[in-house]
Design brief:
This protein has 283 residues and is α/β, with parallel strands linked by helices. It is built from nine helices and ten strands. It has a domain of 166 residues: 3-Layer(aba) Sandwich (Rossmann fold). It has a six-stranded mixed β-sheet, with helices on both faces. A four-stranded antiparallel β-sheet has the order 2-1-4-5. The protein binds adenosine-5'-triphosphate.
Length: 283
């Protein structure tokens, strides 16, 4: 229940079998903004510590502005920390790398490229040459069920299809860790549920370690092994979700007592935060 002890997961020189896949230690991030000529410090992260095991799905939730996206961007290497560190497989993160893939809330596809060419783009930047590049892109497009939409441009795809391309693009570079920032937040309920089920299938097939930011408590309980609850830039608690794998669809899992227990526990933690009521759990 409590955050892991820092001493227990300080990355060793040689990674042990049960060593954490991702370790986040004493992570702090201050932004500086200037308002009316006055420089102001915004403490976005105030000492975040937790670790993620290989093949684990960890959801990160909390009120708007508590630092979830900042945390994910630092793990991805898009943002530098003010203090502390992130390690993936024992190696300190010092920028973006192909060991991590990021899926955004809006897929951010290149509008002039087809679905297939968008997936190929990431592979090209990784230095994968043809014909392997094409074959790999086709394989991952099929994994998300979009082989028939391969030649469509983003404006010819639905929101759910675009997110599928975004997921395929992130997976195609074969990252060890998949980072997802509210990937299904902008989708209708039906599409969201089918993509959640697909993500569970993909994780079961690939064994990927996944860190997913979500405001949706049902989604957090359905997908995650553990849920990290954040409050004002720090970890408030870490909830163990007692549901076994493989997991079924949301309607089926909701009927399980473990689901209800975890959902209530999360809501109890979050509902006391004043701004939380607007942002969390109301879906
Ligand atoms: N580039 C930036 N410059 C200045 N302040 C920033 C910047 N990015 C984030 N912040 C601030 O850092 C804090 C954490 O922001 P962050 O986006 O990580 O929160 P969040 O939990 O992901 O929020 P939401 O759920 O609304 O997306 C907020 O106060 C935000 O205003």
């Amino acid at each position: 229940m409590a955050a892991l002890q820092r001493d227990a997961w300080t990355a060793p020189a040689v990674l042990e079998a049960d060593a954490p896949h991702v370790s986040i230690t004493g992570l702090r991030k201050d932004f500086r903004i200037t308002i009316a000529g006055q420089s102001k410090r915004i403490p976005a992260l105030c000492g975040v510590d937790f670790a993620v095991r290989k093949g684990e799905i960890v959801a990160v939730t909390g009120a708007s502005g508590c630092g979830k996206t900042t945390l994910l961007r630092i793990i991805m290497g898009l943002e530098t920390a003010t203090a502390g560190e992130v390690r993936v497989s024992g190696k300190r993160v010092r920028g973006c790398g192909y060991d991590r893939g990021l899926v955004f809330q809006h897929a951010e596809l290149l509008p002039w490229r087809t679905a297939l060419a968008n997936i190929e783009f990431g592979l090209m930047t990784k230095g994968i040459r043809q014909p392997l590049r094409r074959r790999t892109a086709e394989r991952f497009l099929a994994m998300v069920g979009l082989q028939n939409a391969r030649d469509r441009k983003p404006h010819q795809l639905s929101g759910g299809m675009k997110q599928r391309v975004g997921i395929a693009r992130a997976l195609a570079i074969e990252p060890e860790v998949l980072l997802m920032d509210e990937p299904f937040g902008a989708l209708d309920a039906q599409t969201r549920e089918s993509l959640q089920a697909e993500l569970l299938d993909i994780q079961a097939a690939t064994g990927k370690t996944i860190i997913i930011v979500t405001h949706d408590l049902d989604e957090a309980v359905l997908l995650a092994d553990r849920v990290v609850v954040m409050e004002r830039g720090a970890v408030k608690d870490i909830i163990e979700i007692g549901l076994p794998r493989p997991r079924g669809p949301l309607a089926e899992m909701r009927a399980r007592p473990e689901f209800g227990r975890a959902r209530v526990h999360l809501w109890e933690l979050l509902r006391h935060l004043p701004e939380t009521k607007q942002e969390v759990g109301l879906r």
